[in-house]
Design a protein that fits this description.
Blueprint lengths: L5 H10 L5 H16 L9 E9 L11 H11 L1 E9 L5 H11 L2 E11 L16 E9 L6 H29 L6 H5 L10 H15 L3 H9 L3 H7 L3 H12 L18 H10 L3 E5 L11 H10 L4 E4 L10 H20 L4 E3 L23 H21 L6 H6 L3 H14 L4 H8 L7 H9 L1
Parallel strand pairs: 1-2, 2-3, 5-6, 6-7
Antiparallel strand pairs: 3-4, 4-5
Helix pairs in contact: 1-2, 3-4, 5-11, 8-9, 14-16, 14-17, 16-18
Length: 452
């Protein structure tokens, strides 16, 4: 049987990230057929997980769609994969359907920023922004939300647009003669109109390329750096993009506006939306060095009382560091937070983000620094997949009345849904098996049947 040529495979995989969903669907169908016929190689499945991958519905540095990420996991042998997007649930159903089609254990998440009043005077995990907290919901099974949740999602999108336009007006004035138009230059970079500051950055860099002859001199003036330094930095595109974003869009930059109370939803508003969607409230952790994160026990005590039931970590930035002293300190902070999460009965949701150039496709779980926490990372991935499978098949996920009746504590829920995640195979066969079970069965009976 003739193998698919590398060029044709590249074309097919690129079309998985087309903005047209019909093109994405046809391409996945074609790739799955070729794989089943042995025409293209698939790497053996490995016990690895990336549960925090942004898609192009917010910003993926490599352009991956939800379908593209599901296929990436299948082709590279990633056993579990989760998507996450800022402020929107646009990719949830596409991703879960694509995971079913290719046979990958999938879960869908959302990330946003909220105002955390108990930490209003302390920087938490949004650098330089006291009281502002990156927060998540995990285990969404639909892109739709009940009325109250739907209103919050609309509000979040509208707030993001207002913040973007305010930044754009400031940057257009500062970067003249380079200027961009939001509707013409920014929105077309996102398939569903959910533009982020990373899309705006791409638009500005492209506009400068088209308008300015001496880019080194232009950026030297705008970034207040020597031209020769800019020339060197521009040879490393990811590093240069991060520099421009840091200098112009982040704290201290001309496009930046200090957020505060009212800029983002409250913790309680976000929690209500996540629970209404049947998903799981997930706290987040940066690196343990901020004033707020030096009080993690207090933070988690407050958040769990408000309903948080998991914790998100991005491992790579907490060990993969050149400076040996800083690496040692960060690795210890990582071990400390994993231990604390265990004390609070919070499963871990981990991944690489993929929203910055240079982010890995998968974490190196086998490196010595991550080996001690590897099992906790994998258990967390199986946990959210197990919840997602039961919620999709029977409406019996973490927030369901069934779970509240039979599994009253976080510890009991964690053990059950993690076990479900290990027992239920991916795809329609696994969902059909769960649907076939009688609705009045208890946790032990379900596990016994699935294990048998």
């Amino acid at each position: 049987m003739m193998a698919t040529s590398p060029q044709h495979l590249t074309e097919l995989e690129s079309s998985l990230n087309d903005f047209d969903p019909a093109v994405r669907a046809r391409s996945l169908e074609d790739l799955c057929a070729r794989a089943s016929q042995g025409e293209l190689p698939l790497e053996p499945e490995r016990e690895v997980a990336n549960m925090h991958c942004h898609t192009f519905f917010s910003f993926n540095a490599y352009g991956y769609s939800p379908t593209g990420l599901a296929w990436l996991a299948k082709r590279r042998g990633f056993k579990l994969m989760g998507i996450v997007d800022f402020d929107v649930l646009d990719g949830v159903e596409e991703f879960l359907a694509a995971c079913d089609q290719v046979g990958v254990r999938g879960a869908a998440e959302m990330e946003t920023r909220v105002f955390f009043p108990e930490f209003a005077t302390r920087e938490i995990n949004s650098p330089g922004e006291p009281g502002i907290y990156y927060h998540m919901g995990i285990g969404f099974t639909t892109g739709s939300a009940p009325d109250s949740g739907a209103r919050l999602l609309v509000d979040m999108r509208q707030r993001a647009i207002r913040r973007n336009l305010d930044m754009l007006n400031k940057l257009n004035a500062y970067l003249a003669p380079v200027a961009i138009d939001y509707d013409r230059d920014v929105l077309p970079l996102s398939p569903a109109g959910n533009a982020t500051e990373r899309h705006m950055l791409a638009a500005y860099l492209r506009a400068a390329e088209n308008r300015i002859k001496d880019l080194d001199e232009f950026w030297a003036v705008k970034l207040k750096l020597p031209p020769e330094q800019v020339a060197t930095l521009r040879k490393d595109a990811p590093a240069f993009q991060n520099l421009v974003r840091a200098r112009l869009m982040k704290r201290g930059g001309v496009g930046y506006a200090q957020p505060g109370h009212g800029t983002f939803p409250s913790v309680e508003e976000f929690h209500a939306m996540v629970e209404a969607c049947g998903a799981i409230i997930c706290a987040t952790w940066l690196d343990g060095f901020s004033a707020g994160e030096q009080s993690m026990e207090e933070e988690l005590e407050i958040l769990t009382q408000k309903g948080a039931a998991a914790l998100n970590i991005v491992p790579d930035r907490n060990w993969n560091i050149a400076d040996p002293d800083l690496r040692r300190k960060k690795v210890q902070k990582l071990y400390d937070i994993v231990k604390l999460a265990g004390q609070f009965d919070l499963p871990l949701n981990v991944g690489t983000e993929m929203n910055t150039y240079g982010n890995k496709l998968i974490d190196d779980f086998d490196v010595p620094e991550l080996e001690p926490v590897r099992q906790a990372f994998l258990d967390g991935a199986y946990f959210v997949y197990g919840h997602s499978a039961l919620q999709r098949a029977r409406g019996s996920g973490y927030q369901s009345q069934w779970a509240k009746k039979h599994l009253p504590s976080r510890k009991e829920k964690n053990a059950f849904f993690t076990r479900i995640g290990r027992l239920v195979p991916p795809g329609t066969a696994g969902l059909a098996r769960l649907k076939s079970l009688e609705m009045d069965l208890g946790p032990d009976e379900i596990l016994q049947i699935l294990a048998g």
